Amino acid sequence: MNKTSSRRDHAWYLHHRRPKALVPLQQLAPGDEAGVWHSQGMEPLFQLKGQLPWPGWNMVEVDGESSVSGIVATLTLESTRRQITFDFPVRRGKVTKRLIYVPFGVKKVTFAPMNAAGTFTLRHFQFVWLTPMFAYNRMLQRLTSMHQHYRDLPLHDIVTSLKQQARKQSRKWQTIALEDYDSTFVSMSTRRHYQQWIRQIEQRRAPSEHDIATQSDFACSVLIVGAVVGDDESALKARLNQSLASLAEQSLAPRQAILLLSTDTHARLREWLDEWRRELAFLQVIESSATSIAGKRREALSRAEHDWVWYVRPGDRLAESALYHAASMAGDHPEAQMLVADEDSLDKQGVRHSPLFKPAYNLDLLLSMPYMGRAVCYRRDRLTQLSPEAAGPQDNDADWLDYAQTLSLARQQGFVADWLAHVPHIAYHGVPREEEADYVGLVQRHLDQCSAGARASAGLLPGTQRVRWPMPTPEPLVSLLVPTRDGVDILRPCVDALLERTDYTHFELLILDNQSTCTRTLAYLREVEARDARVSVLHYDHPFNYSAINNFGAAQAKGSIIGLINNDIEPMEGTWLTEMVEQVSRPEIGCVGAKLYYPNDTVQHGGVILGLGGMAGHAHRFFQREEDGYMGRLKVTQNLSAVTAACLLLRKSVFDEVAGLNEAHLAVAYNDVDLCIKVREAGYRNLWTPFAALYHHESISRGADDTPEKRARWLSEYAYMRQAWGELLDSDPAYNPNLTLVHEDFSLR
């Protein structure tokens, strides 16, 4: 190394500042192992001793590991005059980096490593001083990829926008940029920040009087039907009062409301109900002799007079704008037979919690769980055409009845998605049931009526199902394509595990060798090809192009099913390929993806969500292996817009139909997302299953493109995807517009 470069490296090293010690101040206790700490509450706190950050722009780098997913760390800078805090998410196995501006005079720095009880390890913590020019560039780069107002804008246009805002507000554009940059690190948890979201986001979206007037033609009957029993008159009144009050508060009033009560209950509450009838001109109180909820629903439906009906259970509430949002969605989707809205739950004090921000129509998720919930508005004539389910103990289970009705509608409509429209607003506040129901029998009956030949069994979570689809006869040949170049220490464990740990043996393994020169690699390729007749080595003697390599392999594949497999994949159990072949053999299914883990047992891939990070990202990345995920979605089969090609199966006929991978425009990045979107646009449903689990030995902290050439290539591929699929990338039907496009944790937008 010459003296000039040595001096330069030494100067850069001086930019790095690492604390010599982290002194626990509160809610912290050392663990049994070195470096492990126990957080004993929501506010554990260290004080940093030793090298504090230089004044000016700094990059904070934190590499930590926690027993809890979705945590937020907080750094606090204190001077004699003020205190500044910075929040940022900490992901297990990922170095978190964020810009901060350190003022002069900082005397004390504290660090809260997490905002929950649990254990954590801090492997790396440092400050890196940056020049202002470098800091501004990093800030703008994050805004263009992560901020909803600046997404995909050239950096020059972002600066222009910031300067225009600065002139209007008489502020510095750098200050506004930093505020917007900071906002991209805020992860609003559905557990901890829901009340804040209600105040700051939901209440701002309330419709105006003009908006409401445009939906005045919407004709809906609200049917309050359910179990109203007990001797406690005050409790009866309290439950009914909740539901009736929500009707009185509707911004768009229902045309009709029907309350069904037994003769005895009606007699006991007559005077109180008369007061409600005087307040609600549309309210009809009907005495019913029906002994089950199912019977009461049929009676209420027979008295409904309008196009749409909404069942409300006593004690539950319709949100203030529920009918308005339903009307708006029904007007935008005249073909819809059912409207499914988002919802949340009420605790005993009436406080809202646990929001369920649902995807749009998702048939395989529906078979896995009754995700439509209670916030459902039906076309009345469609309900009257449904044949009643067989009578039984479920006649008094409203959740079971809702699920049965939805499955019946799905059978009527087939695979067409237009019959169900999603209302992306919280429209229903429900009192949660005390225990999960068993829906296996109901789903099995649905499958039998569809002549699907599939079998339903209990799923990984209470109240969920796993559906096993029939294996075709004869079993189809699967062609697993594994591109590689050198790297025998990576390739060998992958290939050996695929051969030894796959119960479904009717496959060929095509190793696509892209100009390997390593003698050990070449020797292994010869050895494994001679050892196992299922292995063939195909030589692709051209520059690296992931799409072209796999298209080359697919053209020579003998199987009717193609599997795109990375050379660092390792099955965790033998049934992985059986599950994926059963799923991909369904004629309506396109691409099938698996659940992938990092070697440290955190989730690497729970499916791909379009729009995350400006393009696409992996759902639930860095979640713990045992965690259920948002709405339990880490443990149920579901339709997703895209899955990763690290482990992806699809029928060769479908691959050929969409012209395979795009080797002209997407040589390295996003080719799997492009493939999945093409398959979806061709009319197939893509699917992700948690019942095929594999390790993906991809580096958890993969860096960005580190040369000008790679950066230019990535920008070109990014621009192509935005141009080709821009609108679809911003509105993933398997996601929800109320959820973040910055983080992979299903937090609030």
Automatic annotation (TrEMBL):
Gene3D superfamilies: Spore Coat Polysaccharide Biosynthesis Protein SpsA, Chain A. InterPro entries: Glyco_trans_2-like, Nucleotide-diphossugar_trans. Residues 479-658 form the Glycosyltransferase 2-like domain. This is Glycosyltransferase family 2 protein. The lineage of its organism: Bacteria, Pseudomonadati, Pseudomonadota, Gammaproteobacteria, Oceanospirillales.
